[in-house]
Amino acid sequence: MTWRALYRDRRLWAVAAVAGAVAIAIGSLTPGDEMPQSLPWDKFNHFAGYAVLALLTGLAGIRAMLAWGMVSAYGVVIEFAQIAVPGRLGADPADMLANALGAALGLVALIMSRRVFPWHG
């Protein structure tokens, strides 16, 4: 299989997106006392994680606006799920904003790469 064929295999990207969503859920729903004591740049971690998740979702063939809505909504659901997790605050509007902005950047990066490298799209 060529690199171009791998790039165009939407099933592969869908599996990667689901794996990314699971990784985010595990990291986000781990009790506070089981988390590392020092995780620098909390909002950047949110931003970067959701940027990658949105990028993978877009590569899986989901249109940009729908992918942004899905990934942003997932971030909101995860934030509210954290309320029930011991040692986690949850429902932090700043985290939700970082998630949504990260998702937007991931999709903008995908759209721009498709314009620069048209064979990708």
UniProtKB/TrEMBL annotation:
Domain of life, per lineage: Bacteria
Keywords carried by this UniProt record: Membrane, Transmembrane, Transmembrane helix
Transmembrane portions of the chain: 12-30, 50-77, 97-117
Signal peptide residue numbers: none
Protein known as: VanZ family protein
Higher taxonomy: Bacteria, Pseudomonadati, Pseudomonadota, Gammaproteobacteria, Oceanospirillales
